[in-house]
Amino acid sequence: xxxxxxVLVQDMARALLLAAAAFVLTLIVGxxxxxxxxxxKLGKRIRPDGPQSHLVKVGTPTMGGVMIVSTVVVLxxxxxxxxxxxxxxxxxxxxxxxxxxxxxDWLSLTGSRSKTHGFTAKFKFWIMMAVAFVASLALYLxxxxxLEHEGLVQIPFVGEVNIGLWFxxxxxxxxxxxxxxxxxxxxxxxxxxxxxxxAFGAYGVITFLAEPRLTNLTAFCFTVVGACAAFLWYNAYxxxxxxxxxxxxxxxxxxxxxALQSQQWLLLPVIGIVFVVEALSTMIQTGYFKWTKWRYGExxxxxxxxxxxxxxxxxxWSQPQVTQRFVLIxxxxxxxxxxxxxxxxxxxxxxxxxxxxAIMQERDGSR
Length: 367
What we know:
Blueprint: H1 2-39, H2 65-79, H3 88-110, H4 121-140, E1 152-155, E2 159-162, H5 167-185, H6 191-209, H7 215-235, H8 244-261, H9 268-271, H10 273-296, H11 308-314, H12 319-343, H13 357-363
Antiparallel strand pairs: 1-2
């Protein structure tokens, strides 16, 4: 019992120390990036049809996600990768989506003034689908080709269920949907950053409480938490830097992979409720506008403006009010998600890789 307690304390200590290190390192990188972006005029363009209060944000440095991604990659590679090769999956997805988002950000900054986006939506969608498909195969396939998660998922009131090959298309859709949902949410200062901090923190707790404990995934989650918390230092209202597609797409896709890898992806709509509602509001608005335009010859809207945070802005809420209230909802949702994970039992994943350091070195090294 004493040995088990020592192992658990050591594992949580590692995760919290990585979070603290990520916070400090991201603060340092962030100070440099804000100055670099200002010097090279990497400034945000604002939708002309958006709330008028956002016009003051024109020229604010963007692509701030590089602060988070670079820190997480460096710290994970140094302290949470050797003999823990399963961490290559969330890292690979994070870097892939960051590259895609970074190129898109760059194209939108260097294009004509009439162009507010880089890649076309269709092109970006298919690239995201391709990366998500590779990640889903890596999760599903047996060793040495993948992590051998098969199609296992924890279902409330039922327990562990194997959905077989259906896992692959479902996983692809989850990764693409959540990455876009986070990107849509990244429209107010601190809104996406705070909710990402809460979501990764929730999954950090869930993976630590799993049986066997997924301590490597726990450490990864808390590393992201520390980096996101430091990003909020610069993204607090009024923001000195924005996350951009580089950060939003990368962190959204990574959150989805963490949920899938933990087998608790059914809790993602609860833990990430703000992201889900923001994305759904955009889908509802777009779909209803197109349908009414076809049906009545004139497009109509459900919300004053989508995504949902703009709707409340136009109702008279200030930006800090919208952010704080959405974050409060995200906080409660994260607590509910953790409680559901505890009530309905921990997942059986990663074999015995994460039970103790000695076992990790012996078993996880083959991955």
